[in-house]
Write a structure and sequence with these properties.
With 121 residues, the chain is mainly beta. Helix content is 3%, strand content 50%.
């Protein structure tokens, strides 16, 4: 089992930045691929970005060039740096984990509880 706890959400003006954190426990964090998803009201949960244990990353087109995923295995933590935020980035952001990056980007095995990000115009 893996437990994931997100933090760092909040309210920010358009054009601003936020950094989300996700701390993992319960299994060797460094061997896991990690991902971030988001769900806006009335919409399906969507993939945002993922990072393999090797550091390889991929991003949804909607966030490329604005969001950066990174990980610190010594701290069992994955980060999502969100820059140039837009009102359409408003959503609950979920941390996720899986044994491989393809799975982390599509059907993760583990989920966090989510953290709200609200971007005002």
């Amino acid at each position: 089992q893996v437990q994931l706890v997100e933090s760092g959400g909040g309210l920010v003006q358009a054009g601003g930045s936020l950094r989300l954190s996700c701390v993992g426990s319960g299994r060797s964090f460094s061997s896991l691929a990690m991902g971030w998803f988001r769900q806006a009201p009335g919409q399906e949960r969507e993939f945002v970005t993922a990072i393999a244990w090797t550091g390889v990353t991929n991003y949804a087109d909607s966030v490329k060039g604005r969001f950066i995923i990174s990980r610190d295995n010594a701290k069992n933590t994955v980060y999502l740096q969100m820059n140039s935020l837009k009102p359409e980035d408003t959503a609950v952001y979920y941390c996720a984990a899986a044994t491989a990056i393809k799975k982390a980007a599509s059907h993760p095995d583990y989920w966090g509880q989510g953290t709200q990000v609200t971007v005002s115009s």
